[in-house]
Amino acid sequence: MARQQPSRSISQADLLRLLHEARGWLDSAAGQMLLDAERNAQRLALPQCFGQHLVQYGLAPEMLDPDEKVMRHHWHLDMECRAGTLAVEEARWPFAPQSLDAVVLHHGLDFSLSPQTLLREASQAVRAGGHLLIFGFNPLSAWGMPHYFGQSWLGQAGFVRPGRLIDWLELLGFAVEKRLDGCYRPPLNSPAWLQRLTFIESLGQQRLLPGGGFYCLLARRQMFGALPQRQRGMSFPTLTLPPLAAGTRRTHKRDRQ
């Protein structure tokens, strides 16, 4: 019989404070290591996506270089008002169903009131044949230790095990086409020690080991039967951005056995 998993609640205000702390951490040596590795993974995965409309949401919604023209139309969504972004609720995106060609969730599920609700909202906006590109922290790695022991903001972020996420995607009609892992070194604050442990990163990449600090899943929405007919005129309704509403979530330590 499975052991009861502990849980805790978090308000939207607390979630925003947690997000600010994590975004500040991105300027550290470990944060830059994470972003560099994830940008490399994104460059490998995005060429398999095609279309004209792409949306990014999550920890660093500007992670995609604006000079890198992947698709003609490109939006940054965020849960708060920031320069160059559209503020949205995670459960209410201002896009018509099946109107986007690709959605990038950069640790969006790790910083959400309800990961399943956010994933459902993002998936509904993706057209048949379109893609979801999802970055998440891997609890089955050295990065999972601070999470389970409650250290820094990693102890509050909601880590979703990749196997469980794959199950959720299959229920939503998506098939995972590619998985990439990175950041095999622990999230140390010392640049010198990160440099000394570079060999661990090389070993993990060469052997395609699954124990990286983050995983990147590229999933495609399945097309059942004929291709959907393209709508004439505008692909999107008028953007109506609802105000942020307070809410709570149940953040589970999902991966304790």
TrEMBL record:
InterPro entries annotated for this entry?
A: Methyltransf_11, SAM-dependent_MTases_sf
Q: Does the keyword Signal apply?
A: no
Task: Please report the stretch or stretches of sequence annotated as the Methyltransferase type domain.
Answer: 52-134
According to its UniProt entry, this protein's organism is Halopseudomonas sabulinigri
The answer to keyword Iron-sulfur applying to this record is no
Q: What's the protein here called?
A: Methyltransferase domain-containing protein
Molecular functions per Gene Ontology:
methyltransferase activity
Origin: domain of life = Bacteria
Biological process GO terms, please?
Answer: methylation
List the keywords (alphabetical): Methyltransferase, Transferase
